[in-house]
Design a protein that fits this description.
- The protein is mainly beta.
- It starts with about 100 loop residues before the first strand and ends in a 19-residue tail after the last strand.
- It is built from 1 helix and 13 strands, in the order ββββββββββββαβ.
- It is globular, with a radius of gyration of 18 Å.
- Strands 3-2-1-13-4 form a 5-stranded mixed β-sheet, with helices on one face.
Amino acid sequence: MVAREGAQAGTAGRRWDGLRVRAGVTVLVAAVLGICGCATAGGSHAPVAQGQTTSVSSPAPDTSAATSAAAPSSAAPVARPASSSAAPAAVTSAAPGTVGQLVTVTAVSYRATQAELTAYQREGGRWRRVFGPWVGWIGRNGMAPPGAKREGDGRTPSGTFGFGFFFGVDPDRGVRFPYRRVDASDFWDDDPASPLYNEWVDDRGANPGADPEPMDVSAYDDGAVIAYNTARTPGLGSAIFLHINIGTPTAGCVTLPVGELLEVLRWLNPAASPRIAMGVGAPATGVGAPALGVGATGG
């Protein structure tokens, strides 16, 4: 979701702070976040070493069960988590041999509004770091403990999820996932009372619910659907994406500067059954990810 203020329910002509609307209106970044909250980096970002890799010395993935995430922390939000080269602990909730790509989003506490994003590739039974760690924005109210995410709470859900289709206002940038081009009539239904809750809706043919999420904004020039709440259970949260940031926390999405985002989106391959694991400390991945050696460096 994207940060918004002063929106009028059921209209496409609303004001979206910090975002470009199809009509061509450009406004400043919101000083106060609204209901939703993901967006584009408004320009350049600090240079980051690209394509960093780490060979992992651990053997085949461990499939032993891991403990659940820690209880919520009362610590103040942390501006930038400390770098870590450790992959999440292994759990048994998924067949470890089926996942070949893993993206981790790791916050230092449940109150943090930034997290480290790292991408790994499975090669020969070992995990190799491909990108990161990069700093991204998450929910304006931090990370929800497992199972605690609710609609409108401003928190990023914890857990391990697949990816749905990719999308964008811009033409396909060369991604491997199915790609959906955004049009002015496209919305995401975030109304728990709507029969199309947590679905992409073209409002020319269906009602996207009360106060839907417009997709034709600059934050969504490029993005990926994180497959959260695919059962569309009312109230558990909707419109969780990986997309471009505007340098502010979100309502639940994970955002990166456009350059880093495009590297990840082009790398993700549906044939590798990629997953994104989000949590505090070492999130449970459900994909049998081994622990990387502490202090390992990119090469």
